[in-house]
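Feature request, filed as a ticket because there's no other form

It would be nice if the structure record came with a short human-readable summary line next to the tokens. Right now we just get the raw output. Example of a typical job, pasted below so the devs can see what we mean:
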Amino acid sequence: MRENDARPRLILAICCLSIFIVPLDNTIVNVALPSIRRDLHASVSQLQWTIDAYTLVLASLLMVSGSMADRIGRAKVFCIGLALFSLGSLLCSVAWSPGALIGFRALQAIGGSMLNPVAMSIIRNTFAEPRARAQAIGIWGAVVGLSMALGPLAGGSLVDGISWRAIFWINVPVGVAAIVLTRRFITESRAPRPRRIDPLGQALVALGLATLVYAIIESKPAFGAIAAVALVALVVHERRHAEPLIDPRFFRSAPFSGASLIAILAFVALGGFLFLTNLFLQGARGLSPIETGVYTLPMAVTAFVAAPLSGRLVGARGARASLVIGAGALAIGCAMLTSVTATTATIWLLLAYFVFGVGFGFINPPITNTAVSGMPEEQAGVAAAVASTSRLVGISLGVAIVGAMSTHSGWWVLTACAAVAAVLGLLSTTPWALRTTQGASLSTIQPSPARR
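Raw output as currently delivered:
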């Protein structure tokens, strides 16, 4: 296949079409939360689970979905993911109770987990020439950013014009069209030596994440203890498994560990920001869903514009400047919102959203770059997957944390998270940190007796 013909571009378009709806769902639902609350008589904790059921399942299954696609076929798993995502969306649109909506959101996420990593695998397999592949991945990343930027405005328009149920309808025709195009144009491919699936490791990841978020949302400390036990058990198991889901020794790399923590903290800020902002604007300010989308548009547009600027800065000067600028702006934006009331001047709100958008736009691109640069080349794919998972974990925790406290306290917590991310951005990009990447290479570590 020549990479200057139409077929690779068509395959890229199919991947972009399908992946557009997954991050869109992360942001579009937030605008509909007040309407869902009124229509289904949902509590605040049920609204939190409406968001977190989606992000938690995505985070839990992201890596195993990629491994499964390498084993049984990428196009096949991609179609299964599209079908499950479309079915879950259709069921969400007819949900009759908060519990039903939460369950259907989880089904959506099972399908969604098969789209992001598998689309990336298909793109990498389609574009063999490095420059063409880089351009394709850049387009794919821009589509992801565009979908997140359009989420609030699209969601507000649909909720105001039709119903909150309409935000799920739009996924169905897109998913069906993508299935038809995938079966018609994308050739099946598999990894020459696929990694074995680690079911116990996968179960421990899901158990740890679910119990941690449950402990926060429902104020059940006992479940926090279960999450801690699951984490310890995961580390012990993964150290002895022949092909672990994620090898704990990767975290010897300070840039890799730092990028993972920065991703969690930055997306705690994003998840908390979207949750608090939409409830505040439609509650305390009494705005309509579409007005809420317009208010948050400065954040979305600024983030979209700032991202490529951050990418250029990373290419010219490394990740440190973008990480620190991004985290600093996130902290300032959140701090500006710590004292908002129903009568706060609109210009102040828009300025805070603008600053937050600058921060998010700058901090998101260097996260994966830092994680990948902090690992040997043969583990670059794992590093990128962990960075993506960390983002989703952050959104889940952000929604859980701010929903469990007062609005003003929530903004202060988000400010603190962003400030810590700025410090980590400095520490994880030092010469000392870069030297720690040598210890993360599995090729230089002798396997334990259990691995032989």
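Something like this underneath would help us a lot:
The chain has a mean pLDDT of 82.
DSSP finds 17 helices and no strands in the chain.
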